[in-house]
Protein: Penicillin-binding protein activator LpoB
Organism: Vibrio sinensis
Amino acid sequence: MMKKSLLLLSSLILSACSNYQVPESPTFILSGPWAIMPIENNSNTPLAAQKAEQLVATELYAKGISTIQYPAVIGQDLRSILDFGSKQQQANQWLTSQPVEYVITGSVEEWHYKSGLDAEPAVGMTLEVKSARTGEVYWRASGSRSGWGRESVTGTGQIVIEQLLDGLTIAQPSSSD
């Protein structure tokens, strides 16, 4: 009985460290590369969105999805670096010339170490898959996780992204003989 109580308590503690809202996705047919569009950084950590974009690319690759990523912002003025709208506009212009059906984007809400003695990493974000042509959202999921004191923010972010993207249903195109 004591063992069951400890197991239940442990699972309750661990489940309090993460939260995911991952709805069932439609089936996405792998018909070509997906475009990774800018992820909005709503966190207080500079470059958190760019880090998340790279992790998304890696996780999609692991799932067999090839990706292309919007080009880096050419302007180096303060506006082009800090203004998400400007970055998004440039990426949308680039997207019109790309042969992709799906784009993946989202937002980073939290990407930092908590203050305190243990300084646990904390990551929260949303991902969505949209039509490249119409912008219609086909799937959206969000998740957050607090890691343990010795974990890195990037490792925690990778876990969140993996959990979110595990909600995608991917199928190979049917072969017509």
About this structure: The longest strand covers residues 102-113. The chain has one domain: 27-170. The two ends are 60 Å apart (CA to CA). The chain is about 35% helix and 30% strand.
